[in-house]
Amino acid sequence: GYEFTPRNQFNRVTQAIRQTGSAFKPFIYGAGINERVIASNSGIVDAPLTTLDVNGQGWSPKDFSGRFRGMIPVTKALSLSLNLVSVQILLRTGIEKVIAFASKATKIPKKRF
Fold first, then answer.
1. Among residues 101, 46, 105, which one has the least CA distance to residue 72?
2. From the first residue on, what is the mean pLDDT of each consecutive set of 10 residues in the chain (113 residues)?
3. Angle at 27 between CA 21 and CA 31, to 5 degrees
4. Are 46 and 83 in contact (CB under 8 A)?
5. Whole-model pTM?
6. Which residues, other chains included, contact 11 with Cβ-Cβ below 8 Å and sequence gap of 6+?
C-alpha cells in the first residue's frame, strides 16, 4: 500500500491494477483540451447527471464515494478520478473525437476502442 517496508513489499506504482475507466480518463481530458472544450484552469460542476440513450432509457453515472463536490477544477477532478466530470467532458467533446485522440496518442487503431 502506502508504506514500502520489509514486511510490506507491495509497490503501488508497479503492482496496483487500475480500473480500465480510470486509466482512460486522461485521454478524455486530453481530447477535451485538444478540442478546446476545457482548459487546464477550467472548472466543471460535479453534480448528479442523467443522460438518455437512443431508447430513452436514463443512465446516471456515479462516483465510488457517492459525494458531489460542486464546482471543481478539472485538474483536481482528474486527480480524484471523478466519473461525473469525466462523463461531462466526454459528452461535450464527443466520443469520436476522444477515440481519435486516444488512437493518435497510443498508436492503436480507432476500431480497437
1. 46
2. 66 67 93 97 96 93 92 96 96 98 96 92
3. 135
4. no
5. 0.81
6. 4
